[in-house]
Structure formats: C-alpha cells, structure tokens
Design goal:
Length: 79
C-alpha cells in the first residue's frame, strides 16, 4: 500500500478582475485603506482642535490680571 502525495487544496482566486482588466481590491485591502483613512482623519481633527484651543488660550479672557505666581516659581504661591 503506497501513499500518494496529496496536493494542497486549491484556493479560489482572491484577485477579482473587472471587465476592463483592472484588479479590484479585496475585502482586507479595503478595510486597511479605510483604517488608514480613519487614522489620518482623526489626526487631522486633533491638529485642528489643538490649533483652535491654542488660539483661544492666547486671548486674555481667562486672565485675571498679572502672573498667578508673580514670577517666583510654583512653590512661592503657598508662602
């Protein structure tokens, strides 16, 4: 009784080519592109929010007048 070498299971084609000859993206490639786009969008929103907050904090609307520690360092406010 001899053993026959088994051929690996044939996989279906994972590359889909449309009628014009272009290869379409697989599901995992679409998910990867979507993830990168989401990360870039969240990063851009963070930068924009940081710039807006920085601009708002440049105004003196939150300033009560003078330095809060009078220039002596943080420890001097308790004296």
């Amino acid at each position: 009784m001899t053993r026959r070498a088994r051929t690996p299971l044939k996989r279906s084609r994972d590359r889909i080519v449309d009628p014009s000859g272009r290869r379409r993206l697989t599901r995992s490639e679409k998910i990867g592109i979507g993830s990168v786009a989401t990360l870039l969008a969240v990063g851009a929103l963070g930068v924009i929010a940081g710039v807006i907050i920085d601009r708002l904090l440049d105004f003196d609307s939150l300033d009560t007048g003078g330095e809060w520690d009078e220039g002596g360092g943080v420890f001097t406010r308790w004296d």
